[in-house]
Every structure is written in structure tokens, then in C-alpha cells.
Amino acid sequence: MARCISPLVHSLVLVILCQQVFGGQDLVEGPESVKSTIGGRILLKCIVKNRSGIVQWTQNGFGMGNDRDLPPYPRYRMVGERTEVNNDVIEEFSLEITDVQLEDDGKYNCQVTPTDDDPRVLLSDEVTVTVIAPPNQVLIDGGDIKSLVLGVPTNITCRADGGKPAPEMLWYKEGTGRITNNTYTIATTNESTKVTDVISIVTLKATNADHEKRIECRAKNEALREPLSTYVTLNVQYKPRINMSHNISRPMRENDYVRFSCDGDANPREVHWRWLRNGHTIGGQTRSYLDIAQISSDYHQNTITCEATNIIGSTVAEITLDILYEPKFIGVNQYIPVDLNKSVTLTCNATGNPQPQIRWRRSDSQAPLSETTTLTLSRIGKEDLGMYICEASALYGAFTTKKLDVYLLLKGPPEIKSKLKQFAEPDLDGKVSCLVRSVPYPDQILWIRNKKIIDYAQSGRYSITQTQMADGVENILHISHLTPSDFGEYICTVFNGYGNDTKTIVLAETESLHLSYIIGAVCGGVAVLLFIAGACILYHRFKSSDNGENKDIIKEGVETDKSYAETDSHTEFKKREKSDSPSDFTKSTLMDEWRQNLNYHCPTEFDEINNINNVYNDPRLNTSGYGTLKSDNIINGYENHNGHLFSDYTHRSDESFPVENMNGYNTTNYGTSTFRSGSRTDFMKPDYSGDPYRLPPANLSTTQLATNV
Description:
InterPro entries: CD80_C2-set, Cell_adhesion_signaling, Ig-like_dom, Ig-like_dom_sf, Ig-like_fold, Ig_sub, Ig_sub2, Ig_V-set. One of its GO terms (cellular component) is cell-cell junction. Residues 7-113, 119-233, 240-322, 327-405, 414-508 form the Ig-like domain. It comes from Magallana gigas (Pacific oyster). The chain is of the alpha+beta class. 17% of the residues lie in helices and 38% in strands. The chain is built from eight helices and 47 strands. Strands 15, 17, 18, 21, 22, 24 and 27 form a seven-stranded mixed sheet that branches. A hairpin with an 8-residue loop joins strand 37 (386-393) and strand 38. Helix 3 crosses helix 4. The longest helix is centred in the last third of the chain and has 46 residues, at 515-560. The protein is rod-shaped and about 165 Å long.
């Protein structure tokens, strides 16, 4: 083995010595690794001394040919000159690459083939050509405006495609600088082109301060002198933010005009409005305000809700109402049937804001019987029957006291109160009324015709209707298309738990008035109206003249300082001077008689009103001046409670005109009704002494005195 190696070593040493002595081919300068951008120029050095072999370049291990122009590679060529230095021939075969492209990226070396004179293969170091490329462009997905929802994490994506090497992606927010948190990058490299597409994502949780701020995305790599950048403007969207108010600055009262309004802001601004009451939609209300022309007590403690909606979401604002309203009675049974010697509890419930106070009293007394919602009466006697008043007052709310009549009705057998003769017209529909006073209500009412109970279902012409009243019912028998045979007697029979009653009612044909009677009545009515109108005119005329004369009298009396008797005598003397006939002289005396009648038929600005104290003690409105009907729903009553418990008319001693309607005059309530009860004999007579403006009624002595002057 040693013998074999030794000759080889000797041969190599001999070759080296020969090259040094005779100057063989040698690689003077080789290439170096280089980077270039697309479109640039690359020059890889290859300088050979005393070349005897063939020079060629390899790219990624493949030879490119020995022709300096390298025909297969139009952008490649070997460049350089041939020179002699100290008897050595120096030749340059450097590789020039123009318009560098991505495919030029790779491994390169320069080599010289051996020859017979020099069996060596000259190889340069393998170098790397790196082609770098900037990204094509930088884009943020979604356009120039990026919409984010307030408080909701949102991804913003930026793309940089075609870069080599992969670009570094950076995020910046206007006003705060670089964003380093919540970012990540996805890089995808194309194996053939060796370029990398990069996607960078930043996650933002937008705040109100971010609205209209810029978010910038930057991409940088070695191919760029300055980073590529783009930006979007943030549009921070949010659901409506609203406030609710109303136009009432004081405590809200029943019947107030109320406008509820909602205002605020939203993004987007396209807002749809909805109004709700206690969670239920109020139809037709699609504006930012809700008008209630007269708010009622039904709205007390209701919740009014305003709802605003845009594409982001909905927001509600609400107000729970506290409405002041006057006392209102609820669920009160006004008609209580009772048995003697039994106990009964009257209940009076009232609502209001503030909560009203309850007081019970008798209708003929101001003394309170109870100040709770109930009034219990034990062992009822006849003196306990009648009307009780429940008063509900709410002084805090400045509301008037409300009063409700409650009646104790004695149970007993029914009694038919209908007119025994009733009328109808032939060939029309008719009816027969059976008015029944019955406490308790009747158990059964029968109609009998021609000794047979009427069968409404089979008759085809008969039907009944029934109306309940406080102390009974009205049962009406209807008869369709009356014929002569339908007129005659009808028997009404009524039953309750205490007994029964029967009455025969005659249905008769209506008697028509003769035309001449009708014409005469009309003419007479017109004449009466004309007479009254003339009397009113004369009254006003004489009143004006009297007022003028009285002023003259007062003026003359002041100037002469005479007594009242002298002034009156002088006045009558002046009247005689103005008159040439006895009839004119007696005008002032006749006026006294006229005034008494005209005060009732032609009332002027003065009214008969007394008992001013009742106004403050118990204000009950009665603008008619005729007292109060106890109940329109009472058929008949008992005559054991002050003699007039349930008569057709009873004067209410606790009623009076409101003070504010009196114009400052003395106020008195007196009865002049033609509907007064026959059992009432204690009506107050008019008293004119308290009113200096009222004309006193004429009497014989006054008239005679004036005539004799």
C-alpha cells in the first residue's frame, strides 16, 4: 500500500513544480454571493490566468454553455477582456445577468475544464444569487371605511402579496402609535416563484374614542427603501343611546296634556321608534315622541317605554308614571236589600292618588258614622233604612270631596207600580210595561193573555226585555205589528221569596188629536212666547229709566242734605212733572207688581240664593236650583225615613251652588221645583232681606202707599 501511494504523491508534486516553472492555467478571481432586486444587474466574477481549458458557468449544478453570449439565456452572458501581465495571459469570463428576475435566484459557480497539459479542473466557490422582491401592494380588506361595533372585538385584515422575502407586517393606530398586541401573521410561500403572500390580522375592541381614527398597515422587506402602507378610517357603530323625558315639570295630574320625548344619538342614525305601555306596543306611534292629549288615571303606575332600534341593536328608556287623580269609587254596591233586626255591613272602596280617606254619614246629618271603608249596622230597624253617604276626600291633591249615595232597602213582597192603562198605535210594534218594585229582585215574571201564559218562543210575535233598577225591574212585553185583536187586557204576575203580586194592564189604541186642536195649541204657544218677550223688553226699558231717576235722586239728596222722606217726596213730584196722564204717573207702582212675575219668567243677572254656610260645609253641585232627585233608578220607596225617603223628588239640604259661580252674591239654595214630593211640606220660603240687589215682591200695602203719595 505504501508503495502504491508513494508514486502518486511524487506525480502530484511534479505537476505542481511544473506549473510553477512553466506557468499553467489558474483561477485568479471567483464570484461572491450577491442579492439583487427584480430588474437589477448582477456581475459574478470569474478571472482565469493562462487558460488552456474551456470556461463555463453552472446554475444550480447545470452547465450553461461555453459560448460567451450564452444563447439559451438572453439576459445572461460572459463578459471580460484578455490581457497579458508579466508573460501571463489574464482572461475574464464574469457572468452578467441583466433585468434580474425571480428565476435568477440560485447557486452559481465558474469552472475551467482540464487539458492534456493541465489535467486539473478549476472550480470557483459556489455562490448564491438571492433575488428579492417587494410586495405587489398592501391592502386592508373592506375598503377605506372599516365599521366596528362598539365594545365588540373585530378583526381587521391586511394583505401583502408577492414579496420576497416575506414582508414584516406592522400596525399603527392614530394617536396611540404601534399596535403590538392582538396581532398575528399567516405567510404562504410559492415553491416555484419563491415569493410569499402574507396576511396580517389585528383584533380591535373599539371604544368611543376610536371613532374616525385611522388604522394603518405597513409592510416592509429588503426590497423596499420605505415600507408600503395603507390605512382605513374606523367607523365605530353603536346602538341608540337615548334619554326619555316629558313636558310636565310639576307632579303629573289627570287630564294633563303630556308629551313624552326620546332623544340621544346612534350610529347608524337611521332609527326606528316604538312606544310601549306596560310592555304592549302602542299602535301607530313611530316617532321620537308620544302625545297623550288627556292622560287618565288608568295610566297611574303604568310604565311608558321608548324603544329605539338601528341595525346594531335596540335600546329602551322608560318612565313609571305617578299621576295625581281625584277619588273614584270602585265596586260599590249602592243598593243593599236588608231584613229588619238583621246586621249589615256597607262597603265603600275608592281609589285615588293620593289615596283618599273614607267617611260614612247619614244623608240628613254631618256626624261621621265611620272613617273606614266599612260601616256595620246591627239589628236594623225601620229608622235605619234610607240613604247613607260615603265621602272620599284627598286634600293633599287639592281635589274636591266625592260623595256616593248608598241605600238600605227593606226586603218584602213585590209590588207592581205600572200604569194600568197603556197605549199603542195599530199596525206598529207595541209594548206593555210591568214596572215592579221588588227587593230582592223577582224570581219570576209571567204574562198572561186570554187566560193563557204567553209562550214567547212559540208565539213568534211576543218577546220580553227586562231592565234592573235599584229596587226592582221593568219587564216589557213586546208585540210585533199590532192588530185589533192585540188590544185588551194583559195580566202581569210577579214572584219573589217574600210573596207575589198581580195586576191587569189594559193596552188601548192611542187617541189621535184633531188637526184643529193641534193648530190652536201651536198658535196659543206662539202668542204666549210673544207676550213673554214683550214683557221682558218692557221690564228692561223701565228698569233703565228707574236706574237713571234713582241716580238723579241720590245726587240731588247729597247736594241739599235732605232726609230720605224728603228725597222720596221730591222724586214723586218730578215724576208728576214728566207725566200728563194718571196712567203714566202710576208706572212706578205697577212696576212693583211686574217685577215679582218677571223675576221668575225673565231672570236677569240676579238669582235667589241663600244659605251661604252650606257652601263651605258641604259643596254639592246643583246648577238647576230645583234640589236633587235621590235616584233616577228608584221605583218607589218607604215613607218611614223623614217622611220622604224614596219619593219622586226630595230636596237635598246638603246641596249648594259652587262658591266660584256666585259672582260675589249671597248664596242660598231653595226649592221651587214642580217635581217636589207631596209629603214634603217644609220647603224654605224665599228670603229677600239678605240681598240688596234683588227686587222685593210687591204687596198691597206698598202699592197703596205709592198710589196715595
